[in-house]
Amino acid sequence: MPFEPGLVHTPLTPFAADRSIDFDLYGRMIDFHLRHGAQSLGVPMHVGESVSLTDDERRALIKFAVERAGKVPVIAHVSDAGTGIAAALARYAQSAGAAAIIATTPYYWTPPPAMIVEHFVQIGSAVDIPFLVLNAPEDMAGAKINAALALKLIDKLPNFAGVVDSSLDWQFMIELLTDAARVRPDFQLLAGTE
What confidence tens digit (pLDDT) does each residue in 99-121 have? Predict the structure, then answer.
């Protein structure tokens, strides 16, 4: 059965005066999202300060969200500049009960397509749960996913479930859906606004 995230909400990460995560407020925010139509949660995404958090803080947010959300699926954002770090966070997310993981291209640099494929293969291979790729070229120094790259990932990763696209590149979207549907009918293209 394909992973169907539905309407994904991405809570912010609240901080206390001492700059620690305010988990009481975070819990209330998750409850708010669940009461207002969230069919799954993406944590901690970029709007949730993911790039500014320590590895321990990211792990704590994922674990807390999984426990607080109950039966509502949590998609763990595992992106990092280092492939090994992202793969380790992906393994942690799966062990904590995340329903899926999501990752972008590596932070701070623009690798060639072959390295992007290898980056995603190592992350996706680290887990058995569905793996989504976030295509956000405006936020990622122009590094983007194209249909040929996505097809290579489909070929190499049985758990590659889809692309969350915020590029608004309609030609890419049409090409991706057409080509991916031929080899993986349940492959998804999801709209992202992050």
Answer: 999 998 887 777 788 999 999 99
